[in-house]
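Work Package 4 report. The design task specified in the project plan requires that, given a folded chain encoded as structure tokens, an amino acid be chosen for each position. We show below one input record used in the internal validation round.
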């Protein structure tokens, strides 16, 4: 059986690299780590992993992205994959967007930028329990 996956979504490459590096440091080879630079790309990755029989456990998504905001993306994830734990990572989300994601996407948590590696690890660990 293949390992489960965590997907990180942000339009900034440096954020994605940082997230992936921190997750690998905290959780090692326990998961497959995928990154996407847009909500649309992440939805395609989710579909591909699902088709390959790989379970996506958690999605971490930025809020402020071109084309599709993070709350819109997380709502779509929830409609297709309700069991996936959803985390919004943002420095700029308005409270309305966070509330919308809580109500319509079953948002697990909102992590504010800049975050610490320990906060990220604790949030992921508690979300996956």
């Amino acid at each position: 059986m293949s390992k489960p996956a965590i997907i990180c979504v942000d339009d900034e490459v440096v954020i994605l690299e940082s997230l992936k590096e921190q997750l690998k440091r905290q959780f090692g080879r326990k998961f497959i780590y995928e990154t996407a630079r847009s909500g649309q790309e992440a939805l395609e990755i989710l579909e591909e992993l699902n088709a390959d029989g790989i379970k996506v456990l958690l999605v971490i998504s930025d809020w402020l992205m071109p084309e599709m905001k993070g709350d819109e993306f997380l709502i779509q994830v929830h409609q297709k994959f309700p069991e996936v734990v959803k985390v919004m990572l943002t420095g700029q989300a308005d409270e309305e967007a966070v509330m919308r994601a809580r109500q319509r996407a079953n948002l697990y948590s909102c992590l504010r930028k800049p975050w610490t590696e320990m906060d990220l690890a604790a949030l992921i660990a508690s979300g996956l329990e």
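Residues 36 and 91 are 18 Å apart (CA to CA). Validation will be extended to a larger panel in the next phase.
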